[in-house]
């Protein structure tokens, strides 16, 4: 007890805390990741390459990229508009608006899928009208995009709002008083200030868009080569005893996750974003 | 420079967006006479079957009409697939595990006539199958018939009959045995309750159960489609699992139907109809038998007779009064299955 | 000029910056289209059901068992994460050790890894013949296909929420407060209990609530490992899917509505915690 100093722990406590933390992370995070790659490569690199180069796998990859390419830009535009309105102006009901933007975070993915089926399905509210005009939403690409946009809705906005609140609006006001117009101010002043935070939001938004399973599973229809995304393809292969195939496609998604993490770490490292955007939602302190 | 980068990204992103959206709207056609697209929405285990049959039909149809058929396949649990068709999945034909699921498309989706089962021979079932047991190598627990399933310490794997078509057949096959052994429906219910008392995992689909049994090593016996059991034996080798044929089972009739409203809208009625009729040809029937389903064509059946064990089989219409009544009595909310589960 | 426009619109504080109508309009419009209209469909649909039917299908014994399981496992996973997440955050902020950057990056893995991938990986590990499961099985511990398996999947999904909530607060805390307490004669456990824990309490609670909210609704990673036995290992989101497959749209909608209300409640709670923290911080 005598060596116990008030502002730090003894070395033994320190070491065991580090050991507990690392052990826990290894068991719960690292091991599943290792399992994905080891199961994928179980029957050698040849079987692995064969599994990821089937035409069904390719069209799943293409579709997943397409979905991300549509939904991420949409949410970037929205995120910029929302955080501009929320952080640069004061208006009544602001916290309600922020709560509503947050809503998709806490809604179960299955429920997110279901609401689109209830709205656009053949038995849904708009179903008969859509069918009469031969428009397809559910069980086609637009439905998957909608569900993905819903799920990833808050990502960019939640990343930018804390950052832009912290930065205030002095820079922009100065630019305006010097005669710049709104767009000029936005392009030359605001965007450079928030670019790394924006990139960070895009990164997380993209990872989620490519990996979403529950919501997309409800609205996809699972037509091979047409509405099958990569996460859905993993499930299908898994259910077909094709474990190498399932884990091979899963390993591609895991690689995507690793690339995301590396990029994110680089962003934090170089530009010290640590304060503004610790996480999906910088904890409100 | 950074600004230009951002401008470029957002610009290219919006181009991708517009391009893909227009691609989506332009995708659906097939009325140009040269090519036609056929969407077959099926249940879980038929993937290998239709992979063999589809090219044969495509070749025959091309020869007959000059049209190229492209197939779009969707596989999943029977109930899930039927729900998707009702909600607007654009199926031209449905090939599901049991008639009840196509009945639902007729009654809830109004997408095909209520008497759809009369459209094709043999109650619109181009093949039949039955329920058998799959046990571990050497049959260590000595499981030979239904009676062995209720022994203490025997763990039985079967999917959830609420969601899986195959599982409903499993349930009714067990019921048929219980009724035969005990003589009454009450005895059958007592027997089936005991069987489900030995079930440790209830997967939502037939494929999930097979995975649980084979890959996860859980359970001593799997109640499975005969074709799945054959397939598992073939894929995994007899040194891992063995098939056991019980004294009585049920004659499962997985039906097929043209979703007439969808086909009319796509202009695919003719080809969809021809496709389903093709399933009854000797060529397709042979493929069916080779994929371990029991063919309905007498000649082909005779040819493959040695492959399929002879089993006494109950039928849904004769022994259970048809699907509508069986569904309500056994699997509906508050039905027998719910009672078995709430009692525990 | 922009100032006068803003004044004319009658907002409380005159804004110097332009673009409010466009940005605000876009925000509200997009929010309405993507979130509000779809979400309100579900309430509309259940409103058409009638109170009695809603209660009957939304709170059937099977649904109640599913809620108990979903909320129970999410709470258990949240507690595990609150404990270990706090240790991880503490270690990451306070102690230097080699490879810290990598470890810190790894914490975010569950945000980036698709849930279905996590599901099959965890099942491969914890099934009775899996890497970890084979050592647990002889001890009689079953993980996969039991509620424990669900908790493990939810621990995976929820960990970063706790770590990333607590970490910045711990970093901000600095040594000076502790030193001040030490000069006033407090010992280490006292400082822990009286200074550090109260300071990070709200952040810990926020992290717990977010992990809990995510866990209650989680689907992709859980269905592979849960076993899906009605009344025992059937989570509420799975029950929604199951009901749909049985053509029980009303039941699916009722359960979804109840889950949606729970999401609202949790969000409200998180906002209250944060508002309370802000007020306390301002004092």
Walk me through this protein's architecture.
The complex is a heterotrimer of chains A (285), B (344) and C (283). By secondary structure, chain A is mainly alpha-helical. Chain A is 75% helix and 0% strand. In chain A, helix 3 (55-88) packs across helix 7 and helix 12 packs antiparallel against helix 13. The two termini of chain A are 35 Å apart. Chain B has helices spanning 2-27, 47-65, 78-86, 99-109, 121-124, 165-182, 185-197, 206-214, 226-236, 260-266, 269-278, 282-290, 298-303, 316-320, 322-331, 336-343; strands spanning 35-43, 68-76, 93-95, 127-128, 131-136, 156-157, 221-225, 241-244, 248-251, 256-258, 294-295, 312-315. In chain B, the strands form 4 sheets. Chain B has a 4-stranded mixed β-sheet. Chain C is mostly helical and 283 residues long. Chain C has 2 domains: 18-47; 50-282, MetI-like fold (Orthogonal Bundle). Chain C has 14 helices and no strands. In chain C, helix 10 (176-183) runs antiparallel to helix 11 (188-217). At the A-C interface, helix 1, helix 3, helix 4, helix 5 and helix 7 of A face helix 2, helix 4, helix 5, helix 6 and helix 7 of C.
Strand portion of chain B, in percent?
15-25%
- Using the coordinates shown, work out and report the CATH topology of the largest domain in chain C: MetI-like fold
Kindly state the number of beta strands of chain B. 12
> Main sheet of chain C?
none
What global shape of chain B is seen? globular
Overall structural class of chain C, as computed from helix and strand content, comes to mainly alpha
CATH architecture of the largest domain in chain C: Orthogonal Bundle
Query: Quaternary state, please?
Result: heterotrimer
Q: Beta-strand percentage of chain C?
A: under 5%
Distinct helical segment count of chain B: 16
Computed Rg of chain C: 23 Å
């Amino acid at each position: 007890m005598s060596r116990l100093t008030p502002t730090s722990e003894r070395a033994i406590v320190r070491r065991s805390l580090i050991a507990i933390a690392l052990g826990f992370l290894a068991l719960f995070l690292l091991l599943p990741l290792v399992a994905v790659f080891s199961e994928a490569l179980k029957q050698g690199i040849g079987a692995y390459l064969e599994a990821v180069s089937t035409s069904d796998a390719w069209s799943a990859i293409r579709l997943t990229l397409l979905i991300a390419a549509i939904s991420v830009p949409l949410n970037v535009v929205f995120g910029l508009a929302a955080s501009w309105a929320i952080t640069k102006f004061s208006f009544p009901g602001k916290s309600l608006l922020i709560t509503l933007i947050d809503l998709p975070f806490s809604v179960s993915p299955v429920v997110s899928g279901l609401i689109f089926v209830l709205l656009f399905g053949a038995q849904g509210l708009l179903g008969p009208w859509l069918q009469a005009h031969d428009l397809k939403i559910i069980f086609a690409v637009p439905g998957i995009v909608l569900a993905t946009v819903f799920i990833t809705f808050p990502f960019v906005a939640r990343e930018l709002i804390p950052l832009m609140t912290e930065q205030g609006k002095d820079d922009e006001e100065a630019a305006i008083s010097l005669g710049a117009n709104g767009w000029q101010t936005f392009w030359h002043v605001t965007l450079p200030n928030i670019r790394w935070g924006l990139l960070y939001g895009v990164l997380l938004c993209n990872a989620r868009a490519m990996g979403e399973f529950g919501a997309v599973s409800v609205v996809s229809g699972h037509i091979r080569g047409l509405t099958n995304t990569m996460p859905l393809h993993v499930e299908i292969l898994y259910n077909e005893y094709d474990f190498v195939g399932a884990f091979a496609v899963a390993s591609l998604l895991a690689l995507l996750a690793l690339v995301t993490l590396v990029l994110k770490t680089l962003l934090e490292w170089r530009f010290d974003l640590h304060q503004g955007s610790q996480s999906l939602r910088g904890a409100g302190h | 420079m950074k600004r230009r980068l951002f401008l470029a990204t957002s610009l290219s992103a919006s181009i991708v967006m517009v391009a893909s959206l227009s691609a989506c709207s332009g995708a659906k056609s097939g009325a140009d006479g040269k090519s036609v697209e056929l969407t077959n929405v099926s249940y879980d285990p038929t993937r290998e079957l239709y992979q063999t049959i589809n090219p044969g039909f495509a070749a025959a149809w091309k020869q007959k009409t000059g049209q190229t058929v492209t197939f779009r396949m969707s596989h999943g649990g029977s109930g899930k697939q039927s729900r998707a068709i009702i909600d607007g999945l654009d199926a031209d034909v449905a090939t599901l595990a049991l008639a009840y699921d196509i009945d639902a498309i007729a009654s809830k989706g109004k997408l095909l006539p209520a008497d759809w089962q009369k459209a094709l021979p043999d109650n619109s079932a181009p093949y039949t199958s039955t329920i058998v047991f799959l046990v571990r190598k050497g049959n260590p627990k000595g499981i030979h018939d239904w009676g062995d399933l209720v022994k203490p310490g025997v763990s039985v794997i079967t999917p959830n009959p609420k969601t899986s078509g195959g599982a409903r057949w499993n349930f009714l096959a067990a019921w048929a045995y219980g009724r035969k052994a005990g003589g009454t429906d009450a005895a059958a219910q007592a027997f089936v309750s005991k069987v489900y008392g030995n079930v440790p995992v209830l997967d939502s689909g037939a494929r999930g159960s097979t995975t649980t049994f084979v890959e996860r090593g859980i359970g001593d016996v799997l109640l499975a489609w005969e074709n799945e059991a054959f397939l598992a034996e073939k894929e995994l080798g007899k040194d891992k699992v063995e098939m056991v044929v019980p004294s009585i089972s049920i004659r499962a009739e997985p039906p097929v139907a043209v979703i007439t409203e969808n086909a009319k809208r796509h202009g695919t009625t003719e080809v969809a109809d021809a496709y389903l009729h093709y399933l009854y040809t000797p060529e397709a029937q042979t493929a069916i038998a080779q994929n371990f389903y029991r063919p309905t064509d007498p000649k082909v059946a005779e040819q493959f007779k040695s492959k399929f064990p002879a089993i006494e089989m109950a039928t849904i219409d004769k022994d259970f009064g048809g699907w509508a009544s069986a569904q309500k009595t056994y699997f509906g909310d508050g039905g027998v299955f719910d009672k078995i589960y709430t009692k525990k | 000029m922009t100032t006068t426009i803003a004044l004319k619109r009658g907002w409380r504080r005159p804004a110097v910056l332009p673009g409010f109508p466009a940005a605000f309009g876009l925000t509200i419009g997009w929010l309405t289209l993507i979130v509000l209209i779809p979400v309100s469909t579900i309430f509309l649909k259940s409103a058409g059901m009638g109170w009695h039917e809603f209660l009957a299908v939304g709170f059937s014994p099977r649904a109640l068992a599913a809620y108990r399981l979903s909320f129970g496992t999410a709470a258990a996973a949240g507690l595990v994460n609150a404990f270990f997440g706090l240790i991880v955050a503490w270690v990451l902020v306070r102690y230097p050790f080699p490879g810290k950057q990598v470890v810190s990056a790894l914490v975010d893995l569950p945000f980036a890894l698709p849930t279905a991938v996590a599901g099959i990986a965890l099942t491969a590990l914890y099934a009775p013949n899996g890497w970890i499961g084979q050592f647990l099985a002889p001890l009689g511990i079953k993980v996969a296909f039991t509620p424990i398996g669900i908790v493990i999947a939810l621990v995976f999904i929820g960990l970063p929420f706790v770590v990333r909530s607590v970490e910045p607060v711990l970093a901000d805390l600095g040594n000076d407060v502790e030193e001040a307490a030490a000069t006033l004669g407090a010992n280490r456990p006292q400082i822990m209990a009286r200074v550090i824990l109260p300071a990070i309490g709200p952040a810990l609670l926020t992290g717990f609530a977010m992990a809990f909210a995510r866990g209650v609704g989680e689907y992709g990673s859980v269905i592979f490992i849960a076993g899906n036995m009605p009344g025992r290992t059937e989570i509420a989101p799975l029950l929604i899917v199951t009901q749909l497959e049985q053509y029980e749209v009303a039941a699916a909608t009722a359960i979804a509505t109840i889950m949606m209300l729970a999401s609202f409640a949790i969000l409200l709670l998180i906002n209250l915690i944060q508002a309370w923290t802000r007020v306390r911080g301002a004092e």
